[in-house]
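Reopening this one. Same input as before:
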Amino acid sequence: MSLHAAIPAVDDRTRSREPLVFGGLTESEGWALAPITPRDRVHFRTDRELPLARFRAGLPAGVTVTYDEGEGLYRVDGARGTAESLAGVIRDWCADAGYGTVGLRPETDVRRRAPRDLPPAFLDELCRHYCRVSLKRLQRNMSTIRLHLPDNDDVDQQVAEWVLKAVSTYDETKSVPFGAYLATQLSKWVHDLGRNAYGRTAADTENKQQKAIAAFTAEHQRRPSEKELAAFMGQSVATLRRNSQTVATLNGLRNLQSLDGGADGAEFVVPDNGEVPDEIMGEAEQTLLSHALTAACAPDPTARRDQRAAQANVLGWTTWYLTTWGGRTKTQLSTELNTSVRNMNVHADRAEQVLKQRLVELGG
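Same output, byte for byte:
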């Protein structure tokens, strides 16, 4: 008997996976009903939240408006070839209504799909399936996610938003399965949590340092010294120290108790003016002021979860604290955090509005 005869034949048909079916439609049939299409888009931020109903009513018919609460970013989509005219309409409306725009930018030929255009049953079952798949895949990233989303309900909501985001950007013409596309995007979006909250440069610096430390430890079975880590990363010790300070600041921001409301109930003992020297009083006043700033940047417990006020205003805190006590200018911070001075001013103004109110309360 030949060797080939001894090996049982393999039926290739068993290797092919049956297509997933959602709402009575296969994935390919569902995407075909709402293909991804090109459009023009205008991105912008404002100095305070817009009344969306009024804003939509002031725009041309057929455009759509979305608002990313986490990034404070508005997106207005219109037909191809309308980007510049749409940007002009938005500028005029905001100026007439007394709203300042930040970073208004028209973009042409953006390929997107509106999830609502998909059959409701198809979209519902697809999202339920891929939310479960995504949560399993993200288990290895959960320690990072928990830094920003400690509550299970918030994690579930964020994963659902990511699945919908993937639905809107998935290009079915690229011959890549939706599940594979979603998996590649999830890793990027987890990293973006830190970049959005603390600044692109700070989050990327922390990620590179942690990877380098892990690689060195795996190779040498011990943590690297400062010089060893600098050499391992191809940096000077001075650069490593500067970057380490950025990471330390980032971790300090994460650990601020009052950003979660924990310090608001604490009592601060303020010494009597007549019994202590002026220097001590100056330190006490600075402590109260810095605490008031931190509390002003804490999440508002009365705000809805989808509102920007429900999230810690970390960029506003960083701008105020480091320019007041850290000896930094806004231009320096803008370079270090890789964000615009105008964006920093928007978040700093939000902090200032609440800070003024808290200082009045302290003064009373």
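So the earlier flakiness isn't reproducible anymore. For the record, The chain has four domains: 1-33+116-197, 37-112, 199-255, 257-364.
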